[in-house]
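pinging the channel bc i need a second pair of eyes. not urgent but kinda urgent?? the chain im working w is below, pasted from the shared doc
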Amino acid sequence: MKRRTLVLLGLGAGLSAAVVVSARKTDRSPLAVLAEGERTQVETSDGAVLTVDVNGPEDGPVVVLAHCWGGDLHNWDRVAAPLVDSGHRVVRWYQRGHGTSTVGSEGFEIERFGADLAELLEALDLRDAVVAGHSLGGMTTQAFAIGHPEVATERVQALVLVATSSGNLAGSPIAKAQRFILNPALDRALAGPGGHVWLRVTLGKGATPAMVRATRDHFLGTPFETRIGIADAMLLMDLHEGRRSIDLPTTVVVGTRDTLTPLAHSRSMAADIPGAELVVLPSLGHMLPFEAPDRLVQIIEEASS
C-alpha cells in the first residue's frame, strides 16, 4: 500500500519529461462489448442534462448501473452485456460532468448525485430495479437511498454497492496523491506511450493491460474540472450515520487489493446497513466491473430474482 502510494506521488518528478499526446475523447474502450442502446436524456431539477442508455427488452427485470469517478457508462459493459443477453433491461447513464452529461447549478456534492438517481428513476418510471453502483456510483446509490427513501421504496428492490465507501477518505490514497492525480500535467503523462501503467495500482492481481488502458481512457475522457469537483466532494462526504437508515436488501462487494476504497470501508458499510451481505473477492482491486464481471452478474441476478 505504501509503495503504491509512493509510485503515484513520485510521478510528479517526471512529468516534465512526459511525451505529450492529446487524449482522444471517446465513449468506447478496449473492453467495450455492448452495442449502444436507446439513448435518451433526463433533465434534473438543478438543470443538468443526463445522457441515459437503455438496453434490453422493455418487459425485462430492470437493472440500473452507476459508474465511477473519472469513469464512463462503458465501465459496466462486461456486466451489462450478459444481463441484456439473459433478458434484463439495463439502464446506464453518464454521471453529471462525465461524457455528454452536463453539470447543473448544484455542482458535485454527493447528495446531488443521489438526487440525480432518484430523478432518473422517476423520469423513466423504473420499478422493481436492482441498482448497482461502483465507487462514486456506490456513493451515489447510498446518497439516493438515504436522501430519497420514498423513491427507493417505490422503485427499487435491492442495492449492490461495489468497491465504494461512505466517507473518511481524508487519509486515503485519493487524498494523499491528490495534488498529482489531479494535476493537468498528469494527463500528458497518462496519454503518452505506456502512460496507462500509472493507473495499474488501481487494479488487482491478474488485471490485463486492456483493463488498465480502459481505466486510463475513461479517466482522461473526463473533464479536469469534473475530476477536481468530485474529488473535493468525496473527501467531504460523510454518509455513515445515514446509511443506518437504508431499508433495502443490500450487497456490499469489495476486492482485497482495493487501494482506493479499502476492505475496511466495505466491512464497516456491511456492518451498519441493516441486513447487508458482504462479498469479499480475494486478490482483486478497485475496478471490479472490469476484474470480476461474472461475479457481479451473478450477484445482480440473485438480487433481482
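so The first strand starts at residue 38 and ends at 43. and The mean pLDDT is 87. — does that match what u expected or am i reading it wrong
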